[in-house]
Amino acid sequence: MKDLTVGTLIAVFEEMFGRGLFWAMAGAAAVVTALYLYVLVRDHSVSWRKFLVAQLAMPVGAVLAVLFVWAVTSSGLRDVGGPVDLLTLLGVAAAGAVGAAILVYTVQSLVWPPTRDPSRERG
What we know:
5 helices
């Protein structure tokens, strides 16, 4: 692997996860991202209470992401061999944490939309 291109990365991820699972995960990530952007535009602000709950979900998302990758790739803790493996696992954990936070914030905002305060509206 001489050059690191988007096509190369897609091929590696398809090989790791399988074509169907990889594209299902990519599609789910695209849908959650679109819904997150919709919620931010709709609400015109960030709800800090929902943001705090979403942050509390981050450690769970990090652990679940690492366990998921280990399960799908038939590896485990005993297979971590060096600094590159550790950095890769930290990257997977970081992506899982951020993904969990975005997912939890989005679901909260879709289930409990903000209430409009009539006294704050111009008229």
